[in-house]
Amino acid sequence: MMLHDLSLFHFLYPWWLLALLPLWGLLIWLAYRRSRRSRWDAVIDPHLLPLLRLSQEASAHQAPSPWFWLASAWTLAVLALAGPSWQVNPVPMFKSPASIVLIMDLSPSMSAADLSPSRAVRARYGMDDLLTAIHGSRIGLIAFSDEAYIVAPLTDDANTLRHLLPALKPDIMPSAGDLLTPALIQAQNLLQGIPAQQEHIVVFTDGYSDQRSALQTAVRLKSQGIIVDVVGVGSPQGAPWHLSTSSWMTDSQGHPAIARLNEPLLQQLAQSGGGSYVRLEQLPLLFPQLLKPSTPWQTGQATQAQGSEANNGGIWLLPLIVGLVAFLARWGWL
Fold first, then answer.
1. How many domains is the chain built from?
2. pTM assigned to the model
């Protein structure tokens, strides 16, 4: 047991040990200075040196040197600050068993302002709320227009994804389009890398053009145990949209094109993927679906893991430090 404890010994804050360097330098300087004072035999005749030295009685009345005790107190204080540790305590860690990939539609129609200030901005707000609700899960992020792009692989650091959200705008995509199938395939690849009890894909979109292939992909994902949930962004009444800040989309007659939320299509996608469909304003209804186990026997299983935490043994040096400081104060050295 003792050998095991010694093998675990380390300092939690080893940089504090550098504070010993000034102490060692001071002690070396004092030792050198003392040796220089004691070498009177180099400048005084040997038969005169005994007569010039103080008597033993006078030396006995000299005050003791405080340097040894000051050095001891300094050393103990530095060791305590460095955090010596030789014991490890198990710490329970709770983790959600879910892996979730968020897919963000960045097609030009997401610039429509039927949801103020735009569909894309409101979708980002919804994703931010979702990241808070599923904190602790492994989460990835994909954006798509005519192609799919991995914004972030699976991670349990929700703050990293939250910092990436403000950059998700339709105008950052290199080309226009609304092909969902490549994004679903990319999400499947991310989820296959890290097994989980429950796997979800959550699509934030107002519609997609590759209807047949997207539905077939959702069915295939469902057969592999990956649930596809859909969040509808927009309104059935729709609103005009633009390719750039100064170029509005128009129909064949020159009128502003209206981007409407195609709810039947999105509901069909969610049904094909074995998931749920909600409008963006109903997003909190989706949170329980993302966090509950996919089968009853998984309830509570593998949600608790054991971590470890090193004990800081520096606290045991505090009584010695306090005792030394009191001793130095008693003799008037502080």
1. 1
2. 0.60
